[in-house]
Amino acid sequence: MSRAPSKFNPEPFAYHTELELNIESLTSLGQGLGRIDGWVIFVPFSLPGEKVRARIFRNHKNHSEADLIEVITPSPHRVEPRCDLFSLCGGCQYQNYRYEQQLEWKRAQVAELLTHMAGIEAEVLPVIPSPREWTYRSKITPHFQKPKDGKIENIGFLKAGVRSQLIDVKHCPIASDAINKALPRVRERAHAEALSYRKGATLLLRESAEEPDLVITENNEVCEEHLGELRFQFAAGEFFQNNPSILPAFTEHARNEALNASTSQPANRYLVDTYCGSGLFALSCASHFEQVSGIEISDAAIDWAKRNARLNDIDNCQFQQGDALAIFENITFPADQTAVIIDPPRKGSNPGFIDQLLTFAPATIVYISCNPATQIRDLELLLANDSYQLTKIQPFDLFPQTRHLECVVTLNKKSP
């Protein structure tokens, strides 16, 4: 047996103990979950319904982690991964799982988080699938570590389950065709310029819709994305949703929910888009509202949003920099005819923002999140004073083959 690391906790299993166990479910991190005498063991790249052999490498206070050694009884939904690096590269968790089952487990995990974190029993609608299961990413950011002896070693992504080791990635099947076409050139250039790097670095490849096969590699260069007839421009290194194939359905759903289209109540006439970035939701919804206001803390993002409004000849949409302590201070829309879209970063909103939102008291809140756990944490606060009812939970699969998803939750103000 291999020697255990110096800080290894030997309870309840010795280092590299091999076990056979049945996988019951998947965690929100995409790991298979099994039990031995009630003790939970996480096994990456295993699937529900499988019997596997796994090797323990870490024990925690209430669970253990193990490497997958062998699939003894495979799931009928197991498929052949498309990438040779699957299970080595940490970018994808579900390439071995039939896509329909990926969607079902993502739906189930949102429902489970609602129940266990917030005690909310509510219907979670089936996940809206991505039109493209592969070659959908319009942006990737491969890394490399500090050159050794003037040479760059691996250029790619973190090894699965390891924080510091990189896997060399020469092709990525979830990245767009244009990015994969450009990747060898970008890698070759980095290797050729190794002496210019005194430490590790992150490379950028972002596809721009401005012209076919245009891939931008400089963070500050202007990138373009299209949504129907709308054009959005932004700095290539800044945030913008990077699965263009699903954006039409994604933004249409957010717009319909903000309008109150699925209820018998009068349609909302005004929209406030907080965390508005370069204006994706504000501008894609603008033609359906009398007036729209986009609010963002970042000066640079507001500049891009204003530029995009001019680019698309949209004149009923105003953008303003928000003060974190007074987000809605300059909003004059009548709250009972206004919807608010919030699309915060992964860490979610903060209690101060939620207090201001509840004080403004819009007719409808549409909460969009790439992290269901922080979204549900915030939902507890939004529902705590019993002035809103949760009316719809709609997940979207912006990231096929991975554990990630986006979830759109609609809240409507209760009648007095």
Layout of SSEs?
Elements: E1 18-26, E2 31-36, E3 39-44, E4 51-59, E5 63-73, H1 99-118, E6 139-140, E7 143-144, E8 155-158, E9 166-168, H2 177-192, E10 201-202, E11 205-208, E12 214-216, E13 222-227, E14 230-235, H3 247-259, E15 270-274, H4 280-285, E16 291-296, H5 299-311, E17 317-321, E18 338-342, H6 351-360, E19 364-369, H7 372-383, E20 388-396, E21 406-413
Parallel strand pairs: 3-5, 15-16, 15-18, 16-17, 18-19
Antiparallel strand pairs: 1-2, 1-4, 2-3, 4-5, 6-11, 7-8, 7-10, 8-9, 11-12, 13-14, 19-21, 20-21
Helix pairs in contact: 1-7
Characterise this structure.
There is one protein chain. This protein has 416 residues and is an alpha+beta fold. It folds into three domains: 1-78, Nucleic acid-binding proteins (OB fold (Dihydrolipoamide Acetyltransferase, E2P), Beta Barrel), CATH 2.40.50; 100-132 and 243-413, Vaccinia Virus protein VP39 (Rossmann fold, 3-Layer(aba) Sandwich); 139-235, no CATH class. Helix content is 22%, strand content 28%. It contains seven helices and 21 strands. The protein has helices at residues 99-118, 177-192, 247-259, 280-285, 299-311, 351-360, 372-383, and strands spanning 18-26, 31-36, 39-44, 51-59, 63-73, 139-140, 143-144, 155-158, 166-168, 201-202, 205-208, 214-216, 222-227, 230-235, 270-274, 291-296, 317-321, 338-342, 364-369, 388-396, 406-413. A seven-stranded mixed beta sheet has the order 17-16-15-18-19-21-20, sandwiched between helices. A hairpin with a 2-residue loop joins β2 and β3 (39-44).
